[in-house]
Amino acid sequence: MRHIKRGDGGKVVVRDSPDNWDAVRSARFFGNLQENEVRTMHYLGLAYVVLARRPRLQLKVPLATQNYEDGANWGAGEQGGFALQLVFTCPSNYPLEVPQVEIVEKRNISESLEQALHLEISQTLEQHLGLQMIVPVVSRLQMMLNKEMRRQPTRE
């Protein structure tokens, strides 16, 4: 935004045209949007680890059902509940372009559940293009895992 003084002492504000945006200002703009998403996750109390901020924002987000056990209470090699980690790698112009989302470190996730999770990720990213996408993806996948957990027979 530029300010131009008028002869009578008043100011006229002239907005820059979109053609006047340069790479530095664009990078700063998208960086601010990405930082806002990290802050939102922090304020919502979501667990995350920032793996990188530059050249691209990269986050790792753990998800687990409430009953997830690491095998300590179930017996040798058995586990209860579901757990996974998501790695989000955002392009430089995120959120105008979707991030790459990888499901890593899966625990008790069947192939069919993993396919359903990938489909949910794709749909959520498409629905939120241009907006914050990481928080909605994390929220929806957490709900899917919890719903799937309730469908599972209980172990005795």
TrEMBL record:
Residues 34-148 form the RWD domain. It comes from the Eukaryota. InterPro entries: GIR2-like, RWD_dom, UBQ-conjugating_enzyme/RWD. This is RWD domain-containing protein. PROSITE patterns: RWD. It comes from Drosophila gunungcola.
